[in-house]
Amino acid sequence: METGSLPHARRLRIAAVVLLLAWFFSPRLQSWVPLWLPFLGFAALEAHFLVAGLRERGTAPGARGRSPQPEDIAELGGEEWLEPVLVRIDGDDVWLPGTGKTDEEVAELIEESRERLRRGEPPYEPEEAEAPASRPFRRRFLARVEGVAVLAALAFVLFVLLRDGGWDGLDGAERARTEALLSSQAQRIAGHEARVHCDAEGEAVGIVQHADGLAEIGGSNAYLTPAICYRLHRLAFEADEGSFSQTARAIAVLAHESWHLRGEANEGIANCYAFQSGVSLGRRLGLSERTAARMMRQQLADNATVARSAPAYLVPAECRDGGSLDLAPGRSPFP
């Protein structure tokens, strides 16, 4: 086993927790790494430890840990205390060092301790222990390198990964620029003046409302979560396609709410139209037509699974190539 440093298992767990926390707090990291990957990695690590523990059941326990080091022995009183002896002297339980001592020597030690107790002194006067040998240079060096590496990793997480504050990290001008772009794109789909608001306060959309977007049916105002707005900002202004599924979702949400602004109240039909118009929307935001089409096809393919928790969002059967909800009949592929 290792000495002077954390065991491998603990190191791996610490690294996994740090990376998982970094993923939650860093929109940039979220755009690079899909949601399921950090959880899968952490679950695989814990499963490995569990399986390893189960495989050890029923087997003879092997040697665990290292033998006591000179520092440990000196701290406990020296070599003679490796095998202590418990004796009773005049009604008191007394521990005495017994390592390497014969019965006669232990008996003498008991008599000496009895006399010391009668004089009100401690039962045993330990011998002056020799100062332990200093740790080998290599062991001290590796421990210091490990400490520096841990600090460097934490600094990287704090000052590089977490420095990107997502939507909150954008200044007012960048936020206004993004909202203006998203509003113009929503207006193209709605067919009339539209305004997209990135709801940083969470008053209209977010975790509490269980919605990434909200729009007035046939009205002019739509609301998106900051995460959706920030993903679209990164795509449009920084040419960052990010995570395939997250970018696809962001485009589909903007298109979906735009169709509500156009007057479509049915959630399933709005989804069907959004997946189709999302191709051209994604292209205008910086994607290639091929990538945008792949993203919207993924959204359509995943719709049945996602809609299990919200059946109203399930696209109708006519949402297909040549169906009555096909916005461009005769043109393939769909969407």
Provide an overview of this structure.
It is a single chain. The protein has 335 residues and is mainly alpha-helical. It folds into three domains: 8-64 and 133-161, no CATH class; 70-118, no CATH class; 167-313, no CATH class. It is 54% helix and 7% strand. The protein contains eleven helices and five strands. The chain has helices spanning 8-25, 27-32, 36-56, 70-76, 103-118, 137-161, 172-190, 226-238, 244-262, 267-284, 289-306, and strands at residues 84-89, 92-97, 195-198, 213-215, 221-224. It has a three-stranded mixed sheet. Strands 1-2 form a two-stranded antiparallel sheet. α8 crosses α9 (244-262). The longest helix has 25 residues, at 137-161. The model is unreliable at 1-6 and 128-134 (pLDDT under 50).
Concise overview:
The protein is mainly α and 335 residues long.
Name the descriptors:
335 residues; mainly alpha; 3-stranded mixed beta sheet; two-stranded antiparallel sheet; 11 helices; 5 strands; elongated; disordered N terminus
Topology at a glance:
Elements: H1 8-25, H2 27-32, H3 36-56, H4 70-76, E1 84-89, E2 92-97, H5 103-118, H6 137-161, H7 172-190, E3 195-198, E4 213-215, E5 221-224, H8 226-238, H9 244-262, H10 267-284, H11 289-306
Parallel strand pairs: 3-5
Antiparallel strand pairs: 1-2, 4-5
Helix pairs in contact: 1-3, 1-6, 7-9, 8-9, 9-10, 9-11, 10-11
